[in-house]
Write a structure and sequence with these properties.
The protein is mainly alpha-helical. It has a single domain, classed as Glycosyltransferase (Alpha/alpha barrel). The chain has 16 helices and four strands. The strands form two sheets. It has a two-stranded antiparallel sheet. Helix 7 runs antiparallel to helix 8 and helix 11 packs parallel to helix 13. The chain is globular and about 55 Å long. The protein starts with a helix and ends with a strand.
Length: about 375
């Protein structure tokens, strides 16, 4: 899959204070998170110099076309959390302290990015990744996001991810997602349970868009056991690599970015992505098969310099930023369904007693061994 397509697919102060989610347990591998944060604050990838307009203190050279900086900033903010609820002051202090050798932090660059956020998608991305978690004034951005189009979208189908991000921003800013937007997202689900970056049935689906769609629907109040959600999770489970990672598309390189997006979808639906419970609940073919948890899979992509990225990566800083988000799971997902409680999963095997063929297959009752109990 081309880097260009991935780029397309990824593309109220009071509200920010009121939206303070309870945090889940911090990442089980705190060393990997700390090393990743240290990598992001090194120069490079943080850009040297004292001119924010050309990227100094940030991770992109142009605030009008930033790609990495907002992801890196949220990762740094997540890694800095120490309490049981989100602290905007801890987030802001950590970002302010992330300085290049000339003493420039990313805040001046972020001010420029915020000023250039002229579309609902750009404004929504800034709100979700920077404005709300850092406790900034988001009133102007909320006005830019505005109300959805008559069909529930916030952009054309080609930029479907902008609508998904706008749904998350609406949840953060107002506490709910417009019903028309929820219906629009549901209408774009492919028959397999997935979504494509351009919201069509014919384009190959991808993990990143599907993971974001699940987060948006959960934020919109769709129940975790709704067929739209379970079908999506089953598709995500079917795409998982044997080492626990995901690729942007099946058969591609292992991707820290896509792995983190899948993990956040699983967490949004109320499951522990480190437990096989989620996969056994939604994907019968996975019952009894080897399982690798989310944190182990993401940490397996860590490098000696602290970055977390798969092979042939477009930007190690971008991948690392999203990987930390997947490991921490504190600000994102912005909404979570009630925790799912699963009964112990024990593959049931019956041995044929009448067959005289020693090669006769064993019969595994894989489809009925998972007994989830939904608490919400």
């Amino acid at each position: 899959m081309s880097h260009a397509r991935r780029a397309v697919a990824c593309i109220v102060t009071l509200t920010a204070v009121l939206f303070a989610p309870a945090l889940t347990a911090h990442a089980t591998d705190s060393t990997a998170v700390a090393n990743a944060a240290a990598y992001l604050s090194a120069s490079p990838p943080q850009i040297a110099g004292t001119t924010p307009a050309t990227g100094s203190g940030a991770w992109d050279s142009d605030p009008q076309f930033q790609f990495v900086t907002t992801e890196a900033v949220l990762a740094i903010a997540e890694a800095a959390q120490t309490g049981t609820s989100w602290s905007t002051s801890e987030a802001m202090d950590a970002v302010a302290a992330t300085q290049n050798p000339q003493g420039q932090n990313p805040l001046a660059f972020l001010d420029l990015v915020k000023g250039f956020a002229a579309t609902p998608g750009q404004a929504a991305k800034y709100v979700v990744l920077v404005g709300a978690p850092l406790g900034q004034d988001t009133a102007a951005l909320a006005a830019t996001i505005g109300d959805p189009n008559p069909d529930g979208s916030f952009d054309s189908d080609l930029f479907f991810n902008n609508t998904l991000m706008a749904a998350l921003a609406k949840k953060v800013l107002t506490g709910s997602v417009p019903a028309s937007t929820v219906a629009y997202i549901e209408s774009k689900q492919q028959a397999a349970g997935s979504w494509a970056y351009d919201a069509t049935e014919t384009t190959d689906p991808d993990i990143d868009t599907t993971g974001l769609a699940v987060q948006a629907l959960i934020a919109g109040g769709v129940p975790q056991d709704d067929p739209v959600i379970t079908h999506a999770l089953a598709w995500i489970a079917a795409q998982q690599n044997a080492d626990g990672t995901w690729s942007f598309v099946l058969g591609g390189y292992e991707s820290a970015e896509s792995t983190s997006r899948a993990v956040l979808a699983v967490a949004a639906a109320g499951y522990d992505p480190n437990s096989r419970c989620w996969r056994d609940t939604v994907y019968a073919a996975g019952v009894g098969q080897p399982f690798v948890g989310a944190d182990e899979a993401l940490v397996s992509l860590a490098h000696p310099d602290g970055s977390i990225a798969g092979p042939n990566v477009y930007s190690s800083a971008y991948a690392t930023g999203q990987a930390v988000q997947g490991l921490e799971r504190s600000w994102l997902p912005v909404a979570r369904a009630t925790d799912v409680m699963c009964a112990p999963v024990t593959p049931v095997t019956t041995t044929p007693t009448t067959s005289s063929d020693p090669a006769a297959p064993q019969v595994v009752a894989a489809a009925v061994v998972a007994s989830p109990r939904f608490t919400g």
